[in-house]
Amino acid sequence: MLQVAGLSRQFGGVYAVQDVNLEVAQGELRGVIGPNGAGKSTLFHLIAGHLRPSAGRVALAGEAIDRLRPDQRANRGLAIVYQGDRIFRRMSVRENVMVGAHRNAKHGFLEAALRLPRCRRENREMQVQADAALERVGLEKLADQPAESLPLGQQRTMQLARALVAKPTLLLLDEPAAGLRAPERVQLARLIREACSQGLTVLLVEHDVALVTSLSDSITVLDLGRVIAEGKPDAVRRNPKVLAAYLGEAQGQ
User: Fold this and answer.
1) What is the pLDDT of residues 187-232, one digit of tens each?
2) Exposure of 133 in the CB half-sphere (CA atoms within 13 A)
3) Containing domain of residue 222, as a range?
């Protein structure tokens, strides 16, 4: 589903990501971890389209997307849940989630401005889809609340619903557990597992190693912009290079 080949990104003379190769199978949940400064965020933004690579290729379902804008990547089936506060203020929870469904709408600006029949019909359909997504994540009773009134954990859950309503083929999660309390992390992990059980492909970039190892089918570890380990969670946790990157031990000790 996702193929990253020889991906690099330079800032000045410094490589944030260098020659990264990554393949994620359809239906797989791949975790990406690494210490601070490892290049996780840069890799995420290269895949999402917020940064252009200095070299390398990104392909989604066999199609090269590394030269496409973020909105074009979204139209190809890529959806994102960001770490930060990414909500539409002065809009309700339902309206925020409906934004995700617009990827599948057919009406244009003129039809929306004139409120033509197709626009009205598709808006009704998007509302139904948004309500179903909110019920799926347990926020259906808050659909009419202002999005900014929700606590952080529920805002993050709303963002997940907004991503899922787009019916993506690949979901990128950018440190979704950041700032959440323990019960909220448990709830988030449950929702991610449910999404994966229905065949969604997920790339989880996360600082919380325990969360990643509990969720992921396999893990890729970055350090100083390079892949230093890859494999099943148990094997990755025991890898000497990974221990050295996190604990500062000399390799080989």
Assistant:
1) 999 999 999 988 899 999 988 888 999 999 999 999 999 999 999 9
2) 27
3) 1-77+169-176+200-253
